[in-house]
Amino acid sequence: MKALNLKSMSWIMALAMMFIVSFTGCSDDDGENTPGEKIEFPTLQEATCNADGTITISFKATVDWKLTSNAGWCKFVDGEFTQSSITGKAGEQTITAKISGDGQNYSDDNVAEITLTLGEKEQVIYKITRPKKVFNGLTIKDENGNVYNTENPIIIKGSGYEKIDVVYTTILTESEFEVGISTSENPDWIKVENKGEGKFNLTFNNDNTEGIDPKYSISTEKGHKLVFGVQTTNEGLINVSVPVAYEGLKENVLLFKPEYINALTVNPEGTVFTETSSGSMEGTEGVKYENQLSSTITVRDDKFHVLKITEIKTPAMGTYFYTYDVTQEPDWVTVVEEGTKLTLTVAALPEGAELRGAAILVIPEVIWNKIKDTDLQATLFTRDSDNGAPMDYLNDEYTDYIWTHFTQEPKNEEIEIILKGFYTNQEIIDWATVKEEDLIPFDNSDQTISTSEYPGQIASIAWNASFPKSLLENNKSVCIQTNSIPAGHDFGVMYNPWEGEIQITNKTIDGKEYMVLTGYPSSMSFEQIMAGIGNFDTMDFAIELNIGMY
């Protein structure tokens, strides 16, 4: 018996075992370890296409795919046919979608959604908008013949707040059919007036139920449209819509609440504003405002520009003349803006500083943008130099924008000016020898001198003197004494109806100043001598003196 070769058997068995293991491993690989293809959808795209147009849709599919349209007017081209769905194998794809006019109307745009199916998953990958049908039987224009359409929207003009300040936006329509505007289909903030023959006047409706304030503009981005109805013969009522916007409150309107109409003065500390009844010297004190001025602004879209300028106040001719310098901003005036609220404060006047003034203009932003690069001095003001002193007048189109103007003056230790009347009982040859005791005071009976309860023509304080002309007989004199003449002022005469007959001079007697009248009037009249204490160059007078005789 032949013995077995165990070494050879071991090798054969080992080889058989390796074969079995190798076969089993391949089977597992084929069944479990082959991963599926990754599914990715393209990014959603949107497009607009008119009827009878086409859209190209491109995508990459890693598995078999299917495209579906949810709109009957949007179908895929498949050879000579069009259909609502189309399928294909994996790979790069380019599909054409054809847009028809089926179901298209004059009122609404239509949107088709294109859905891509990959395996068991689906997703909208395209949205196609088909614009509404264009009705060519209606033309909508403005008064200048410009056509309104999607690219040129209707913009409602802004009116003022006063009922008389209404601005209409006039629309003209041209059609062979009857045209109307349906208020039920249009924004409530639009007020429509049908003027007949295709003409419509549009304004902002202040009583709108949406609570929209007329001062705020409304852009086309809000999506508002004005709908015109056209009653056709064959197609019935057709609605034609045009985008509509609103420009906001009338561009040149600006309101202050409260207003500061009159000129103001500010005390040196900057804590009290005092209103005067007018800009003249005769103006009386009025309302006082403590510490600050404050107003709320009403203007289009709450947008405005604050302009601070220097005011120069010059006394002359018994009044005040104002000039302005737009190049000098008064840095001692602070204006704080909090939304539509303005608050103004003034710094204290430095020790030894002279009078200073400021004017504050608040200008609608739309107006400011038109003038800010111009010569503002010439744009805003007109200067008049024909009335004794230069005077700047704010041009008419900007007068509503003056918020306030004021001056701040140093404290004046004013001495009350007192006048007294005297006369001589003889002609005076040498006035240097005359003493006050040589003069006879007015008796306040036949001869009087006193202040008037009314302001004068050239000064806020007026004195009246009256005496018989007999006091001037035989070259005797009447003397009017003043206790004070302020610095820069003189005691003089503006008008003497007896020029050449009555001489008026100034004398100093015992250190006091007098105006002396000497001479006899040849005839009498109701006229008076007008004199005063003041600056005769600037016509700034402390008092006025009217002298009458009988």
TrEMBL record:
Classification via InterPro entries:
Ig-like_fold (IPR013783)
Keyword Signal assigned to the entry: answer is yes
Signal is among the record's keywords:
yes
Q: What is this protein called?
A: Conserved domain protein
Superkingdom as given in the UniProt entry: Bacteria
Which organism does this record belong to? Bacteroides clarus YIT 12056
Could you tell me the keywords of this UniProt record? Signal
Q: Which residues form the signal peptide?
A: 1-27
**Record's Gene3D superfamilies?**
Immunoglobulins
